[in-house]
Amino acid sequence: MEATSTRPSSPGRSAAGSAHDNADVSPLARALREGPLVLDGAMGTELDARGIPTAQELWSALALVTAPEAVAAVHESYLRAGARVITTNSYQAALPALMRSGLSEPEARGAIASSARIALETAERFSQERPDRAALVAGSLGPYGAYLADGSEYTGAYALQAPDFEAVHIPRIEALAGEGIRLFAVETQPRLDEAQWIVRQLGRIAPGSECWVSFQTEDDGERLADGTPLAEVGAWADVEPGVAAVGINCVAPSAVTPALGVLGSVTAKPLVAYPNSGDIYHPSTKTWTSAAPDQRFTAQAPDWGEAGARLIGGCCRTTPADTAVLRGLVDAR
After folding, report:
1. Is 211 annotated as a binding residue?
2. What are the binding positions for Zn(2+) in this chain (predicted)?
3. pTM, entire model
């Protein structure tokens, strides 16, 4: 489905550049010409800090219905901390889950669409204030395992032939594209076949869009959570025209440098890295063990630029304070 909205996928489309640039170069590519890009960090952590409950099936997506102003405030906090790219709060926003929570189908689709509107409007306001740092918005597309809410996004132990597999992915892509999103974050993917399927759907539903694809890996950074060699992933991304960048996210910080090394050996495309804070997650109990200060992800981030990362941010349990540290590291380079 071609989106009918005239809203741009990001205020970055209005950044300085020639008419030829605007016509021929994507906003992401144009922004990368200036240097590495800082991504935002965790949404759920910041909602929790604002008193918005996330300990339920919908996780941070519930705030789209109950506290949209808090979602906007989190986006703004990351932009003010130095992020150039914010992602929509749609990672866990699946149509079947939203409908199970009591929403009608039109209401559920509207909630997903609101994740795009909130992010785009926040980025637009910020970009008008800081035209030198025009912000990009990426539509977050989590894996089917995130919808299952059973920790399987960390294992890939599910079937793509599940009856509600398409019902999780397709309406979300349609809703985000319908609001004008043309940059997508296909993230926390534990399986190559699911990522390939999502990228094909993006080409069908949102022609001309681009995405980065970031994967969930084992702790050694050499294989996906389901065992697929990361080198195979990088080789696919290298020749896939719909993929603008490839990398890893929601992994232990120690996995990042090895993973970037594997990917950099098989693709020339920009690499992406946004690991967890360094705290240890226990899927069975949905609890965390806090990392020591010297194990926090920002302590290792200087190595990632050297290893080829061009988009750097944080995932679970990271904060705007971490984003500010990353911004400082990128500026120092």
Report:
1. no
2. 250, 315-316
3. 0.90
